[in-house]
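Section 4.2 – Deliverable D4.2 (structural model, holo form)

The reporting period included a commitment to supply a predicted holo structure for the target in complex with adenosine monophosphate. Inputs used:
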Amino acid sequence: MNVLIVGGGGREHAIAAKCSESKKVTKLYAAPGNAGIAGLAECVDISVMDGDALVKFSKEKNIDLAIVGPDDPLVAGVADCFRNAGIKVFGPAKNAAIIEGSKAFSKELMKKYNIPSAAYEVFDNADDAVKYLETAKMPIVLKADGLALGKGVLICNSLEEAKEGVKTLMLDRQFGSAGDKIVIEEFMTGREVSVLCYCDGTHIKPMASAQDHKRAKDGDKGLNTGGMGTFSPSPFYTEDIDKFCMEHIYQPTMDAMKKEGRDFVGILFCGLMLTEEGPKVLEYNARFGDPEAQVVLPRMKNDIIDVMEACIDGRLDETDLVFEDKAAVCVVLASDGYPEHYEKGFPISGLEAFDDKEDYYVFHAGTKLDNGKTVTNGGRVLGVTAKGETLTMARENAYRATEWISFENKYMRHDIGKAIDEQ
Ligand code: AMP
Ligand code: GLY
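Output (structure tokens):
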């Protein structure tokens, strides 16, 4: 099969690595890919948002399967472009990706179908939002309705902060039209877990659980980022919790989307809070997480193409997902200053140390080739993943492997997966 991966981050590198293990794949392409993906796939400089150009390229290269990685093209309907052109595609249609694209939509869906989540109200007018806040319990959570690079969520400890938040989202429009509508939500406490599920429109199968570390600095301090590291599995996600989630969250979400005429085919990423009252949905995403994919996929034993084809063909119920018992930890190597100001273009050395080592992976996120040399080209540069018999061992292995890599302004957190030992 000829397979095209749409995207160019660490998540897409992890998907490409898994595809390259498949017996079914003869040739891999990526648009636009990156310097790491270029070791596995032929990279072509087409924007992830350019559905027409992606379809034209796919026809020229006889692509048998396209896999759309990031949220923006899915929410914009790029998977529909492939499907309408008769090209098999893994990724939800626009009318289903709205589950990530609009928080108001997802909250209304959960309310309508009794899926556990935080209590909320939706506002499209700043005055009404402020009036509501004046009688609400603090802390409280404000969320921009639309996509905001994972930064449209504000946790406010006082009425003052909350009013300021409404101004930031709705009046100053820091996230543009994404904040024209906002969700105001009850603040929940508990452990967070990410569970990524394969979906075929009717059936849903969860993968191994994971947890990410979103803040830039050790001890969960600093600004929110796209994710500074992940581990899998989460020790807090027990079999009982999995059973509860299957019964009250995963399958009901599949059924709800079907009832709404929005069959969901692809990856449904459930961000969960394990509260004292039981698991509740924090958010849905319509794709693999980044960097959750970098710890979950290396543990998956199935041929990823088999699983994706089963989703597309509506026969996921015939597939058993199998994960290694080993744990995995991914430490993101970033450019110092991320997520604010940082420099790019520094040569990276030590990548070849990973070539001959089983259970060690270096996934490229922000890199590019410059005269044949790999250089830094983003805030998140690399994701170093290692497996181990236990989470502690996986973490030790991952941190040892981070030392093999050098580049100017290399920055990482030192406590990825660590909190779990102390709790
Ligand atoms: P989201 O993009 O909706 O997952 O929100 C980003 C982060 O904000 C989550 O990972 C949580 O840490 C936090 N968060 C979102 N909603 C809530 C909530 N209702 N209560 C507490 N924390 C929340
Ligand atoms: N790591 C969180 C996300 O991919 O949205």
